[in-house]
């Protein structure tokens, strides 16, 4: 298969992103909706990251080679191309192998905020372009607010809140090396780094301690990985997201917001809405809004008559499903939606 026509079409739809100074992050190609499931391309400043998501990887190997040849000619300002193979047996390939160039981007700028990058930190890029609307939402709404960012990873959501003038942002993650990148982002923006607000540890332990302390936040962000397990508990976005919501729901201040993100590809939007409806059923929380994913991420050329994904994300427009829940006021005792 010649992928060049698909790439040329993708570029035509993203001309707004292709002008100097080339500091932004965006999705150049979404294979699910633009003609080749198994391949995704994202741009981080002057680095292109190719994600081979196919199983087996050989399914798109030829397309990857064609793309690596095409991009430096189509985008002469590029400085490097990194390949990540999701289902490779070698850790080095999952984290990324340099295909072309010598220097990987170390930072990007979005809505005036700088974010530090380590594109080889993990099997993803460490910065999610599809959550751009959530960062913009936090930037616009968190002035003088307190924020808890659980499963913070590299902390971009918390950094956006701080850049928007948040009074306090607590970032939590299991691994300190991820949170260190959040601190780098703060340094890039001249934002204060308050060490007690970076909590390294298990989500279940940290949220339990915060509940015992009767901590309350104006905004709590719940953006967990698809699946993980520790000695304290299990994260399963497809089967048991409600349990996670119930862990953080008591931490939302009266009138505050709970931002619930679920990126499970095989969880339909309808099933996710059922979970949210169950949690809101007793009136403690209500659905305030859904944040749509931007078009560069969803892709152009969505087929009519059905979803291109394994399950239909509607009423969300993408498998990464972002909902903002609002606290109704005084909290009821016990868990809701069980």
Walk me through the structure.
This protein has helices at about 5-15, 30-35, 60-75, 90-95, 130-140, 155-165, 175-190, 205-210, 240-250, 270-280, 295-300; strands at about 25-30, 40-45, 45-50, 80-85, 95-100, 105-110, 115, 145-150, 170-175, 200, 215-220, 225-230, 235, 250-260, 285-290, 320-325. By secondary structure, the chain is of the alpha/beta class. It has 2 domains: about 5-105, Transcription Regulator spoIIAA; about 115-120 and about 125-325, 3-Layer(aba) Sandwich (Rossmann fold), CATH 3.40.50.150. The strands form 4 sheets. It has a 7-stranded mixed sheet with strand order 10-9-8-11-14-16-15, sandwiched between helices. It has a 5-stranded mixed sheet with strand order 1-2-3-4-5. The chain has a two-stranded antiparallel sheet with strand order 6-7. Helix 5 packs parallel to helix 6 and helix 9 (about 240-250) runs parallel beside helix 10. The radius of gyration is 20 Å and the shape is globular. The termini are far apart.
**What general outline do the C-alpha atoms trace?**
globular
**Strand ordering within the main sheet:** 10-9-8-11-14-16-15
The helix/strand class is alpha/beta
- What oligomeric state do the depicted chains represent? single chain
Query: Which range best describes the helical content: under 10%, 10-25%, 25-40%, 40-55%, 55-70% or over 70%?
Result: 25-40%
The total count of strands amounts to 16
């Amino acid at each position: 298969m010649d992928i060049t026509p698909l790439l040329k079409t993708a570029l035509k739809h993203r001309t707004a992103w292709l002008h100097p100074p080339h500091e932004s992050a965006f999705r150049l190609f979404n294979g699910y909706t633009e003609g080749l499931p198994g391949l995704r391309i994202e741009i981080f400043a002057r680095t292109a990251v190719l994600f081979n998501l196919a199983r087996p990887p050989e399914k798109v190997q030829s397309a990857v080679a064609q793309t690596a040849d095409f991009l430096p000619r189509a985008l002469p300002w590029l400085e490097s191309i990194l390949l990540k193979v999701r289902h490779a047996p070698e850790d080095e390939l999952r984290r990324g192998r340099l295909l072309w160039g010598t220097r990987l981007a170390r930072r990007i700028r979005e809505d005036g905020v700088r974010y530090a990058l380590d594109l080889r930190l993990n099997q993803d890029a460490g910065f999610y372009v599809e959550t751009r609307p959530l960062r913009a939402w936090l930037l616009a709404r968190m002035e003088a607010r307190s924020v808890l960012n659980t499963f913070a990873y590299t902390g971009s959501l918390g950094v956006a809140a701080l850049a928007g003038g948040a009074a306090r942002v607590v970032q939590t993650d299991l691994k300190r090396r991820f949170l260190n990148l959040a601190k780098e982002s703060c340094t890039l923006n001249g934002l204060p780094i308050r060490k007690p607000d970076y909590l390294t540890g298990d989500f279940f332990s940290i949220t339990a301690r915060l509940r015992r302390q009767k901590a309350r936040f104006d905004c709590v962000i719940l953006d967990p990985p698809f699946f993980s397990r520790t000695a304290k508990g299990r994260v399963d976005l497809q089967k048991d997201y409600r349990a996670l919501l119930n862990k953080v729901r008591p931490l939302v201040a009266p009138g505050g917001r709970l931002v619930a993100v679920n990126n499970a590809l095989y969880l339909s939007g309808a099933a996710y809405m059922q979970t949210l409806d169950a949690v809101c059923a007793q009136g403690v929380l209500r659905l305030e809004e859904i944040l749509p994913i931007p078009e560069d991420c969803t892709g152009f050329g969505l087929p009519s008559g059905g979803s291109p994904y394994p399950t239909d994300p509607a009423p969300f427009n993408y498998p990464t499903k972002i909902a903002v829940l609002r606290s109704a006021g005084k909290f009821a005792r016990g868990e809701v939606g069980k």
